[in-house]
Every structure is written in C-alpha cells, then in structure tokens.
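The following block was generated as part of the benchmark described in Methods. Ligand: alpha-D-glucopyranose.
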Amino acid sequence: MKAKLTATAALMMAGALALSGCGGAATSGTAGGGGGGDAEQGLDGRGPITYVQGKDNSNVVRPLIEKWNAAHPNEKVTFKEQTDQADQQHDDLVQHFQAKGADYDVVDVDVVWTAEFAAKGWLQPLKDKMALDTSAMLKPTVDSGTYKGTLYAAPQTSDGGILYYRKDLVPTAPTTWEEMMGMCSIAKANNIGCYAGQFSKYEGLTVNASEAINSSGGSVLDKDGKPSLNTADAKAGLENLAKAYADGNIPKEAITYKEEESRQAFQDGKLLFLRNWPYVYNLATTEGSSKVKDVLGMTALPGKDGPGASTLGGHNLAVSVYSKNKATALDFLKFMTSEETEKFYATQGSLAPVLGALYEDKELVAKLPYLPVLKTSIENAVPRPVSPFYPAVTKAIQENAYSAIKGEKTVETALSDMQKSIESAGAAG
Ligand code: GLC
C-alpha cells in the first residue's frame, strides 16, 4: 500500500504540473518568473516587518514573535492574524497583493496557493541573495513551496489527515471505511454522531472529497495531469460520503463544519470518529473543557482495503515582492523554519514539522508517539492539483462534492460536472 501510494503521489505531482502548463500565461505582476521589477527591490532592506497568517489556533506564533522581537529591536515583527478560514485568508492576501502594498512583508502560504501567487509574480523567488537551505526538509513539503523549479515559499509546517477516535468506545481502530461504518452502531448506542470531517463548502471540502476519492483507489487527476473523475473508484469514494450523510452516519450538522467546528464537536464528546489535522491532538488533550482528553485515539485515515490516502496539507512562508525589508524578512523565514522552531511547533502545537530528522528524534517521539504515523501519512499524502488557476479548480471540486453529499446531484453527475469544470478551469488562462 505504501509503495503504491508513494508512486501515486509522485504521478499526481507530475500530472498536476501538466495541468498548470495547459492554461497559458497567468503572469500579471512585474516580477513574473522572478527576474526584474519588484523582485529586484528591497533585497538589502532591514527594518520592521509584518507577518500575516491565519488564526493562530495552536498559540505558537505569538511566543515566537516575542522571542524574535526581543532579539531584533530594530527589525520587529508585527503579527497580522487573519480568520481561521482558508478561503478568507486566501482572498485577503490576493487583495493586498493586487494593491501592491508593502504592508504584508512575510505571508503564510497554504500549499495550494503557491502556483497561483508565484505565477502572478507576487512571491519573491527564494534564490541567489534570498536563498534558503531546504536540504533537511521532507521532499513533499519542499515541492509544495516550489513552482516551475523555483522555491517561492519556505516549508514551515506540514499537514496530514488523521483519524481521531474514541479509545474508550472503539476497541480496535478501523483501517477501512467499511469497518469504520460498521462501528457506527457504537455511536448510535451511545447517542452520539459517528463520523465527521470538514464538509462546509470551502477548501476543507476539497481536502475531504479528494481524500475520499483517493482512498478508494480513484484520483482527481491522472498521471498526465488530466482530471480523471469519471471512474468507478472515484464514484465509490464520493459515494461513501454521500451515503453516510444520507443515512446519518455523518451527522447533518457536519455539512457546516470546518476544522474548528468539527474539532469542537469531537472534544465535546459528540462524535465517535473525526478526520482532522494533527493540531487537534494538542488542543483536545490540553483544553480544560475537552471531554476526550484521556480517551483520544489516533490512526491513519481509513481506505478501501487498508489505510487510505491523506490529502497533503501544510503552510509555507513567503516574502512579498513588494516588501521593502527583504533582508529582515529572509532572516525571519530562517528563524521560523529553524530546527528549534520546528521542535516548538511540534511540542507546543502538535503541528507537523518539515524537518525529516525530527520524526525520529527520541525526545520528541516520546512526547508525541504518533509522529512516525504522521510522517508516513505525509510522505504518502496526495497533493491537490497544482495550477495557477487553482481557485477555479477547487471551486469545481467543492461545489460538486457539496451537491453530491447533500443529495442535490447524483454522485455520477457531480463527478462528471467536476471533470468538465476542472477541464475548463485548466484551459481558462
Ligand atoms: C489546513 C491545511 C491546508 C488546507 C486547509 C483546508 O490548514 O494545512 O493545506 O488547505 O487546512 O482548510
């Protein structure tokens, strides 16, 4: 299974790049592929900078910035915290880049935004004077910050989907979707919901729908980067979600869940199984109100004949081409991705480090025993399509998956519409 998934992931990457190639030029900024214009300015600039990121759910950013600021009184970092929703974070960054503002110096880039932002010429290429050593980082994380062979964003934290479950109620963790659904009788007997992920219509649904498709042997793109959704395996995957929603194994309120709502429901003791990211471990085991503190199980996402395939998530750090203080920004990137900081992400926020060695670090593994499982999840995770037109691609996936889960479209129609919309998104440039 592992070898097969790794190969699938590699093909998806190769194919994904093909999708990005079929749409023509998306460059609108003056920096383009990295030469000239804004990318040449501010390289030696030092002074105060602003760091922009989505909600700091795990409370890791503030302590790090305090530490940086104490050591750099003339190059202080101001933290601009966005909301906890991926789509709103994206739109806020786009608006600021479009205005060519110098007020967002360092930005947190979700792995799926790299291609779009780089193609627009908004991200400073991390090469030459701005080069950064990524040799100790996990390859999928470096790939996720790279576009057309150039690094644009420094891997900060990775993300792999995990199945959280109630150890007190589930005797042995399920490995397949069928097994998990079979255990929903336990949820019923305990008067709680069985399974939830993130099914609200936003980026998280693209993650969950892709996982359902990949975990049942299908794939969003084929090896040539063309959408391949009209297959029996893709149908079986999306059908799993639609059926579970229809029969109540996915509770009705889960159609509004994003990461935080689903975490809250699980922590409140209202769910038997939850698909979410590693950050949940820290909060579910430390928050005073958590009802699952001592009964939290973690395992791989369930698949068809064994473990399924996670969607690759994660966040990288980029410098805006419009920043005036790029020398400071680069130092800050190095600080935020250093070994010490990566350890802090793991111990303080149970976030997934990007440095491969940390997954074997005895002290860390003793504290976070699931690290080896997480590393396998990330190494085998399937990237989402890489495209400068990603907003249209993800919209095609979200909208059709949402309609299928709610039973507004048959799974077959949803997948064929998804296929057509991704095709036209790829060719829209
Ligand atoms: C997490 C992942 C990110 C994904 C998002 C969806 O933040 O790291 O890659 O796009 O969730 O909500």
